[in-house]
C-alpha cells in the first residue's frame, strides 16, 4: 500500500503501473495480481487504508456549526499530501469510466455521507425539513468544496467556507420544499 501511494505521489495515477509498484514493494507483479485485479483496485485500497475518505463528523449542536466544521476538515485533508493524490485521482475519472465508478463507490462517499448525517441530526433538532436529507440540495456544500479544490487548489480559506455555508448552503437547505415535494406530501396524505 505504501509503495502504491509513493508511486501515486511521484508519477500520478496515469503513469502508475503494477510493475513499478511491485518493484518498489520488492515483490512480484503476480503477488499483486493475486490480491488486486488491477491498479485501480490497488490504488483505492491504499487510499482507503490511509484514510482518504475518513472524516470525524463534527457535532457542534447546530447545522451551521457542523457544516462549517465539516468543510474545515475537508479543507485540511485537501491541503495535506493526500490532497494532491486526490486531485490526480479525480482528474483521472474523466478519462476512465470504470475508475470513475470505483471512485464514486469507495472514496466519494465521505462528503455526501457526512453531510447527510449532519442533516439528519438537524432534522432531529427541528432545524431542517426531512425531505432535504435525500434531496440534491443535501450535498451542495461538499460539492462546492470539491469544485474549489479542483479549480483553485488549496488552502481553501475560512472566508470561502463561511461564504459557501452562509450564502449558498443554509439558504438552500432552509428554504421551503419545492412544489414537487409538497405535492408528493399531499398525495401521501390523500
Quote the beta fraction: under 5%
CATH fold category name of the largest domain: Tetracycline Repressor, domain 2
Classify the secondary structure makeup into a structural class.
Answer: mainly alpha
Question: Could you estimate the helical fraction of the residues in percent?
Answer: over 70%
Top CATH class of the largest domain: Mainly Alpha
DSSP summary: helix tally: 11
Low-confidence stretches: 186-190
Main sheet makeup: none
CATH evolutionary superfamily of the largest domain: Tetracycline Repressor, domain 2
Number of domains: 2
Q: Note the overall shape.
A: elongated
* Total number of beta strands: 0
Question: Could you spell the SSE succession in H and E letters?
Answer: HHHHHHHHHHH
State Rg: 20 Å
Straight-line distance between termini:
56 Å
Mean pLDDT: 86
| CATH architecture heading of the largest domain | Orthogonal Bundle
Polypeptide structure, described:
The protein has helices at 2-15, 18-25, 29-35, 39-49, 63-79, 81-92, 97-106, 110-124, 140-152, 158-174, 179-189. It has 190 residues and is mainly α.
Amino acid at each position: 500500500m505504501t509503495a502504491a501511494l509513493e508511486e501515486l505521489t511521484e508519477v500520478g495515477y496515469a503513469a502508475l503501473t503494477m510493475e513499478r509498484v511491485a518493484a518498489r514493494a520488492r515483490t512480484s507483479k503476480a503477488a499483486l495480481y493475486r490480491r488486486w485485479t488491477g491498479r485501480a483496485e490497488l490504488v483505492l485500497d491504499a487510499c482507503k487504508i490511509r484514510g482518504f475518505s475518513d472524516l470525524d463528523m463534527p457535532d457542534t449542536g447546530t447545522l451551521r456549526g457542523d457544516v462549517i466544521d465539516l468543510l474545515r476538515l475537508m479543507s485540511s485533508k485537501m491541503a495535506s499530501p493526500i490532497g494532491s493524490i486526490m486531485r490526480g485521482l479525480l482528474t483521472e475519472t474523466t478519462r476512465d469510466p470504470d475508475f470513475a465508478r470505483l471512485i464514486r463507490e469507495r472514496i466519494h462517499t465521505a462528503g455526501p455521507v457526512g453531510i447527510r448525517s449532519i442533516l439528519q441530526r438537524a432534522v432531529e433538532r427541528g432545524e431542517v425539513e426531512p425531505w432535504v436529507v435525500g434531496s440534491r440540495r443535501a450535498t451542495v456544500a461538499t460539492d462546492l468544496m470539491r469544485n474549489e479544490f479542483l479549480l483553485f487548489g488549496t488552502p481553501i480559506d475560512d472566508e470561502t467556507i463561511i461564504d459557501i455555508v452562509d450564502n449558498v448552503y443554509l439558504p438552500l437547505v432552509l428554504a421551503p420544499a419545492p412544489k414537487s415535494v409538497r405535492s408528493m406530501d399531499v398525495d401521501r396524505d390523500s
